[in-house]
Amino acid sequence: MADRSLVLTGGTVVDATGSRPADVVVVDGRIAAVGPDLDGDRVLDAGGCVVAPGLVDLHAHLRQPGKEEAETIETGSRCAVLGGFTAVVAMPNTTPTMDSVAVVREVAALGRTALCAVHPSAAITVDRAGDTLTPMADLADLGVRLFTDDGTGVQDGELMRRAMEVAVGLPHDVVLAQHCEDAVLAAGGAMHEGEWSARLGLTGQPHTAEEAMVARDIALATHTGARVHMQHMSTAGSVALIARARADGLAISAEATPHHMLLTHAEVASLDPVFKVNPPLRTEEDVAAVRAGVVDATLDVIATDHAPHTPAAKALPFPEAPPGMLGLEFALGVALAVLDLPLAEVLARLSWRPAAVAGLTDTQGGPVAVGRPANLCVIDPTAEWTVAAGATASLSRNIPYVGRTLRGRVRHTVVAGEPVVVDGSAQR
């Protein structure tokens, strides 16, 4: 083989086209050969493992610029590759907000030094304040394909309608992603409104706070024809609304987070702020509905909502602590542990489906085939492991899965042809 060739040997390739035993050779950042008994200058053992397109996260908070004490693009990207992700979409609630050409360019430049591909999103409204639309056309010209005010939903329905109309008129195919939360109905709730909020004496967020905005934006998407992506769905009612919308043929995609597929509001009984997240952890019935929605592809994407916060911030009393949990290193393990799905279907929701939503299919999530960019992960799908406290490459430590046994571990990750994780260890 040519110089600088890399071969992944002894694995089973799994992608959108199917499954087959094969070695994979990479040369100069691209897949050069797929087949039996191949050679290369450097060998990575994939025996007993699956070789798959790299995972793609539509929803990662990398905190830079402005909150580098919690995470940087470099440390967040290290978490990503350890979790098998070769691309992440960075959320815009940074300081300053990713609402201008200058800030998006800054994040894109920082992303070029990361361990994985980092694709900036941009806010729908200036400073995510819900008053004025960002220069969406200019930002789309820079390559932004996902717009969101994540962390706060766009409260003004007329402004959201205008955003959809602008999006439809752009020459680029963009998607508007919505944090579905009616601020009046949520009323500052720190957790789910239900049995446990009543026991603990905490103000809660009712399920209707999420579902009202889901219903509104489905109606707006019907009216405008815009592509809409619903972020971190957490209630049974939201899943039912999206199922009906998709059955009606609307261009709506939706995501579930690992924590909303596993954890319930009962975790808050400890008053440990690691379990404070927005939208909040819900009931057992909601968790079951979210899992079922992922299984039947009503919720066709699994996204981490990786949200680092410093230990000092998460040490505040529960009502005052910021919401958010770490997720990039644990998403695959949670998904394989809780979902009754074939591995290829789990990978679809973590790799090629989010790549399609974000417009990244030229480089991410595609088939493991000759000529494709070599963005790959090698997974041991049967490995079981127990999450230890502090077991993260993040600058933060807000892991909600400590002590839980997950299934499936990343052995190697290859980004643009370079091994960035080898035998479970990041290479820089």
What does this structure look like?
The chain starts with 5 loop residues before the first strand and ends with a strand. It is built from 13 helices and 21 strands. A 7-stranded mixed beta sheet has the order 3-2-7-18-19-20-21, covered by helices on one side. It is α/β, with parallel strands linked by helices and 428 residues long. The model has no long low-confidence stretch (mean pLDDT 97). It folds into 2 domains: 6-50 and 371-426, Urease, subunit C, domain 1 (Roll), CATH 2.30.40.10; 54-357, Metal-dependent hydrolases (TIM Barrel). It is globular and about 60 Å long. The longest helix has 18 residues, at 207-224. Strand 2 (12-15) and strand 3 form a beta hairpin.
Topology summary:
Blueprint: E1 6-9, E2 12-15, E3 18-21, E4 23-27, E5 30-35, E6 42-45, E7 50-53, E8 55-60, H1 73-82, E9 85-90, H2 101-111, E10 117-120, H3 136-141, E11 146-148, H4 157-169, E12 175-178, H5 183-186, E13 191-192, H6 195-200, E14 204-205, H7 207-224, E15 228-230, H8 236-247, E16 252-256, H9 284-295, E17 301-302, H10 311-314, H11 331-338, H12 343-350, H13 352-357, E18 376-386, E19 405-415, E20 418-422, E21 425-426
Parallel strand pairs: 1-6, 2-7, 8-9, 9-10, 11-12, 12-15, 13-14, 15-16, 16-17
Antiparallel strand pairs: 1-4, 2-3, 4-5, 7-18, 18-19, 19-20, 20-21
Helix pairs in contact: 4-7, 7-8, 8-9
